[in-house]
Amino acid sequence: MDHQSASNNGLEVIQLQCEYRTHWLGSDHLRPQFSWIIQSNQRSTIQYSYYIQVGLDSEDWTQLLWDSGIVVSDQSIQVKYAGSPLQSRTRYYYRVQIQDQQGRTSAWSEIQWWETALLDHTEWQAQWITPEEEWHNPQLESVFQLRKSFTLPENISSARIYATAAGLYELSINGTRVGDEWFTPGWTSYTHRHQYQTYDVTKYLQAGDNAIGISLADGWYTGRLGWENKRQHYGEHKALLLQLHVHYENGEEEIIGTDTSWHSAPSPITLASIYDGEHYDARLEQPDWDQPGYDDSLWSGVKVAELAYDHLIAQENWAVRVTEILTPVKVIHTPAGETVLDMGQNMVGRIRVTGIIPANTHYVIHHAEILDQQGNFYRGNLRTAKQAVHYIANDQQDRKINHVPRFSFQGFRYIQIEGLDHLTDQQLLEMVTGEVMHSDMPIAGSFECSHPLINQLQRNIVWGQRGNFLDVPTDCPQRDERLGWTGDAQVFIRTAAFNYNIAPFFQKWLRDLSADQRSNGSVPFVIPDVLSVLDEEKGDTELPASAAWGDAAVICPWVMYLHYGDQNLLQKQYSSMKAWVDYIYNQGSHHYLWNTGFHFGDWLALDAKENSYMGATPVDLVATSYFAYSTRIVRDTAVVLGQAADVKLYSERLEQIIQAYRHEFVTPAGRLAAPTQTAHALALMFDLLEERDQQRTATELNNLVIKNDYHLTTGFVGTPYLCFALSDHGYHETAIKLLLQEQYPSWLYPLSKGATTIWEHWDGIKTDGSFWPDDMNSYNHYAYGAIGEWLYRYVAGLDMDESIPAYKKSKIHPRYGEGEITSASAILEAAYGKIQSSWIEQADQRQLEVIIPANTTADIVLDHAILSSIQENGQLLHEIEGIHNIQEMQSTIIITIGSGHYHFVYQYQPISRLV
């Protein structure tokens, strides 16, 4: 490989990333992983070798920290850094060149960079500080302002701030807010892992006088979380830690950090609460408080907070940002006389009010998801969460405001405004905007089809993910909960990976799961764990763990591996994964049946007994099914990681669990003992049955659905697998009818009631317009959105060969729509590049458009296709470049192809299944 030359031969290396990021500021990875995408103008391109260089100078590539040399390998994702040890607070540049199997050599890629933060906790010289007033009233929910004045000489070359808080913080320098991140430092298991952020503040500083201003709020650290009005889960006082490094052109460095020289004062934000919203009193404003030259002589001091440093970690997750601006679609004057604005979409974020209001105005904005039967504003399902924003203007005449809450987020579609009655409807519409907020994950995929209601369902799924992926995968974003429920996360994670790049998001959350996992291997219901504290205070010594919820410890890392091919993540989570299945193994008197303890079962299933949230499927059947599933995944993980002894151990356990399951839950005649849709779906999906019993079980499942007039009865556990189990066993037509069912209960029924996100209950709004009880009725609860995975993989047909992760080998297998859906398309920006599967069905002809990225292959699976009719771009298959193999198996044609863009047209013979 001539790595000095640049070529223009149709082969190019693009989209370099370090740990999924470009231009990554603030890493504490000692051996980060690199990935790149290959662009080729030829089909069937495979990387033969790669060459990576890492250096300190983007112009000089003679002095390198890592020169990999030519590495003969087709690996182009998750390539681990193998150069000299990295140093703290250093920017590194890297570039890649490749050669393909035909001998073509690419030019060097564009140069990319990442920058390290503090690689050792001993580098923190600053002190944790807390406002003095905070010590007088630890229950105070107001926001404090902290400031520091300092003087800098000229010739500043660069500057970085490393900052975090016990609570939430907002940073400004010389009166300007720094960055576009919100809710920093994010929510982690603070006692074990506490994130800090890195900021390039060079442009904010000036020679001469400067000032740093910080607003400091309770957030998740000391604020109210969970139930029973519990606060201070992690500590009694909010605190700040900040360290500014200023570099000068002469090579010198100056460090300014938090210490007792800082000053503090109350802010105009008199209440900031995750659940309850914010109160802002403009009469308490101190203009220019974060500017140099401000007189802070009347401010109070700060005290040193005795908090640790050894658990500080650089930002792992995607930052929370404002990702979209919505404008209200109409003003509603309700029968009760309320003034309500409809945002047109159930969203998560905040309302910004911009305009002129009279002096001494006090307005209140309440947030809600729906209107009641009479069309009035409805907040009952918020439970104790107030979700209200108060603003009190000062006594200045006709004050122009631009107000938005900064330390609280709300889940809502409708807002009720009190105190602005003097404004016309048009003025309200012009003053109010909605700012959508969530972890700023790059969009990964899209799905659409010929059926408009299914497209709306997909939009609802995406909006539910956006609203609930706010730093942690919350169950809901509006009521007094907003917790990282493990069960919801594991059933939805594969759908989530189709919609967005969730790698850093779930890496961070899974590390918190490991940190909060108990010594016996059990996994709390929510991560970060703030509920066990309540159990401990009640004297509970046996803290509960539930099947399908705790299994997130195993399922989520495995799905991440399948989608991103990151063995490093599997390795880090492996002990946690084993600890969970070992915990189950050690429960009760039977090692291979999980028939003890508390379980949520098939949560909120419609076949539940009266006044029960748990479905009719026996909880021990659900628990043992998941025990087998997780044990299988741990066995497969051991295979990937080369743990031979564990492969043997968990293979033997899996066989014993399956035998115990069959003995306990399958009759000698091969019938499942539990006649529920969920029981049958789990048995089929988790491969728990003898081969002779599988088709009978599938037929029984099909009959259960048909007898229920093509309605589902499943809850959180059964719903994700129902359509898969049907489609995999010859009943795809039933699965399609189930999907397209518009009457309650179904995925489409909520759409008839105006849903723009996924509901917690199939009948959150009942057919008569009444509501489910307020105690548990979220209208933004993403779990049932797990059907999205089936839409991508089975309806559009964009799937993978799971034996070769990260879509190194795709499987394009559209199941088609049984005449009800006549076209579908899915696109995924996968680790190796863009994959597309798009089909159109007309009469007896099908068209399939496929894009497969370079350095990968794919199997195209065509059901009922007539081989002699298949053409690609008007040519017969044997004439086509990129076709590697053709197999004809019964009524199915399998075509193995290399990378490229393909257009297949063929005739098919429909085969009806007699039921």
Automatic annotation (TrEMBL):
Enzyme Commission numbers on file: 3.2.1.40
Reaction(s) the record says it catalyses: Hydrolysis of terminal non-reducing alpha-L-rhamnose residues in alpha-L-rhamnosides
Limits of the Alpha-L-rhamnosidase concanavalin-like domain: 333-438
Bacterial alpha-L-rhamnosidase N-terminal domain mapped to chain residues: 155-324
Enzyme class of the recorded protein, top EC level: hydrolase
Segments crossing the lipid bilayer: none
InterPro entries with a match to the protein in the record: 6-hairpin_glycosidase_sf, 6hp_glycosidase-like_sf, Alpha_rhamnosid, Bac_rhamnosid6H, Bac_rhamnosid_C, Bac_rhamnosid_N, Ig-like_fold, Rhamnosid_concanavalin
UniProt protein name: alpha-L-rhamnosidase
Annotated organism of origin: Paenibacillus kyungheensis
